[in-house]
UniProtKB/TrEMBL annotation:
Lineage of the species this protein comes from: Bacteria, Bacillati, Actinomycetota, Actinomycetes, Streptosporangiales
Name of the protein described by the UniProt record: Glycolate oxidase iron-sulfur subunit
Entry function: Component of a complex that catalyzes the oxidation of glycolate to glyoxylate.
Cofactor note: Binds 2 [4Fe-4S] clusters.
Organism: Actinomadura bangladeshensis
Highest taxon above the source species: Bacteria
Amino acid sequence: MSGQDDLPNLLNDCVHCGFCLPTCPTYVLWGEEMDSPRGRIHLMQQHVEGEPLSGPMVEHFDRCLGCMACVTACPSGVQYDRLIEITREDVENEHPRSLKERAIREMVFQLFPYKRRLRALRGPLRAYQKSGLERLVRRSGILERLSPSIAAMERLAPPLGKAPRLPERVAARGGRRATVGMLTGCVQSEFFPGVNAATARVLALEGCDVVIPRDQGCCGALSMHSGRADEARAFARRTVETFEAVDVIVVNSAGCGSAMKEYEALLADDPAWAERAKALSAKTRDLAEYLVELGPRAERRPLPVTVAYHDACHLAHAQGVRSQPRALLAAIPELTVREIAEPDICCGSAGTYNLFQPEAAGELGDRKAVNVDATGAELLVAANPGCSMQIATALRRRGAGIAVAHTAQVLDASLRGLGRDALVARRS
């Protein structure tokens, strides 16, 4: 997403009206102008006019979650999502970070986009969780002293069970209505394999042949939203190649779906890939979005449970998918959906944000947990693995006995008649 030549025009779209302020999580937390979209745009303008990227300036950019709530709220159509991605690319290219910062960032970007590396981590992490060492380490505070980012990674890791592997094709149940490709994701496939299994079952029960390419890799979302543009383009090209043969790609992770819908812009300046990227972006669908387009066929069985639905930022703001998940949940007999206060305030996950800005992320996670708990729901439903980890961790901190599940898992429980215990027995 080159965009550097467009930066002055994009900056000029902002009329500094302030509509973004109450929607910006960091401004809500601290009330600091430079930690609002309007303030950051002012800093971007200074940089365009020749001001070097100083440490304090970069800190304000780093504190931005990239949640895009401001994009939804802006009456002037300011493309803040483009602005922050272009600016983060500048930061990556121009600003020298400390050795410790570089080491932590490199560790994250050399681990999380690579499924095999995450898979290799599963065994030791599972043993660590089962041994009781987890409680001792947390009580000691040793990881916090070593690195708040490493402590955040350890704290956020969900309880790990067995990880069933999906076949390359799951056949439609009943008459075939469609053939779809399915992105399994990196964190989703290794930390939440049950979500992928539920997604494939739901699609099959709704009459879809589900194609799951074995050689698929990272979609590039973390890199794209962190200013690592060349890395993101490489991941994007591989994803385009992998899914080019299918008519529709269904994605169950909000951040991944958002990134894939941005491939058209990411590879716009690459003559060999621009049209191919545009075609892939056009056929990418979030799971809820696709299921509503397809229409229901499988019988919904009663599921007497009260759920709170969480709007993931990259689903609600980036993709505009809000009503579809609610419609799917509302169609399940005996299921009650409750709304969460401050739905547009990010939970603090934001891709890598809760790793690189753990203190601010913790404040936002706690704020979200309070609002989730206030609904009185038995189950929180979210459509992004980062959100699930972040909010589950905050709920545990609060001592709230609320289970967490993906929309796909709720639908799967209803379509297969598993009952409420299949969902609410797994407390956060």
